[in-house]
Amino acid sequence: MKISIDALLALDAIDRKGSFAAAAHELHRVPSALTYTVQKLEQDLDVLLFDRRGHRAKLTAAGRELLIEGRHILRAAGELEAQVKRVATGWEAELRIAHDTVIPLDAVLATARLFYQQPTGTRLRFSAEVFGGCWDALASDRADLVIGATGDGPAGGGYATRLLGEVSWVFAVAPDHPLATAREPLTTDVLLGHRAVAVADSSRNLPPRTAGLLTGQETLTVHNMASKLLAQQMGLGVGHLPREIGEREVAAGTLVIKQTDEGRMNTPLYLAWRSTHKVKAGKALSWWIKQLSEKNWLVSGNRHADV
């Protein structure tokens, strides 16, 4: 490699300061050493980097191009250096967080805003999952932490969980849907005659899960809770929605809540992460676990378990 970080630092300082002498002073080097660094780089690349005529050192076109791209390298090197130092202090370079689409995104992002107020430098990467997708994200190492995992974890254990709360469900239809004026409670036979809207399980490797569907019922499958809500508002199908969402839309006049003869049970939601002894929780992961455990929308008296 003919271009070194040292040479790029020299080019950057000379351009900013306007002379070799001023740049050498900033870099705590003697001018002759800086001149040698630039001359050697010019010899190695076989190009002229500075037009030395006049009182101010001026970059040639080739020198300007090298400096423009070189500054990207200097920034990346500086970030890498800082990242290595952060990792050495226990802060992860990146934390991958998966959340079930039933979890309000604004609550997750509000927590991210608090996290960014900490001097961590840890990058956050979010992904949205459905049903078993949260467990799948942990098992396949696509996530370090999942928010809103449901049901049991994958066989073999190695995961720690904390109960976040429960989702209460309501059965909702559009105001102009035939079931909106149907006699309650709606029976299974009646429901079978109408299309249901379901959210697809996002698992890639684990067996997919379903909930709230009747055997033989026509189904419209969408990819997240927001799409399910929209489809039901448009009258494309019916189904269960989180009570908070359903009641909000009823107040807005976009949905009607109907009673069924077989209601859907509340769904416990868990915070989950790997608990194997080989994986030690870093400071970022520990911060998120603690912060989410203290959220006021979580169940009081959270219980912690290894599964």
Write up this protein.
This protein has three domains: 5-88, Arc Repressor Mutant, subunit A, CATH 1.10.10; 94-166 and 268-306, Periplasmic binding protein-like II (D-Maltodextrin-Binding Protein, domain 2), CATH 3.40.190; 169-265, D-Maltodextrin-Binding Protein, domain 2, CATH 3.40.190. The protein has a six-stranded mixed β-sheet with strand order 4-3-5-12-6-13, with helices on both faces. Strands 10-7-11 form a three-stranded antiparallel β-sheet. The chain has helices spanning 5-17, 20-26, 31-45, 61-88, 105-115, 133-139, 188-191, 225-233, 243-252, 283-293; strands at residues 50-51, 58-59, 94-100, 123-129, 145-149, 159-167, 169-173, 196-199, 219-222, 239-242, 256-258, 267-274, 304-306. With 307 residues, the protein is an alpha/beta fold. It is elongated, with a radius of gyration of 29 Å. It contains ten helices and 13 strands.
Secondary structure blueprint with pairings:
Blueprint: H1 5-17, H2 20-26, H3 31-45, E1 50-51, E2 58-59, H4 61-88, E3 94-100, H5 105-115, E4 123-129, H6 133-139, E5 145-149, E6 159-167, E7 169-173, H7 188-191, E8 196-199, E9 219-222, H8 225-233, E10 239-242, H9 243-252, E11 256-258, E12 267-274, H10 283-293, E13 304-306
Parallel strand pairs: 3-4, 3-5, 8-9
Antiparallel strand pairs: 1-2, 5-12, 6-12, 6-13, 7-10, 7-11
Helix pairs in contact: 1-2, 1-3, 1-4, 2-3
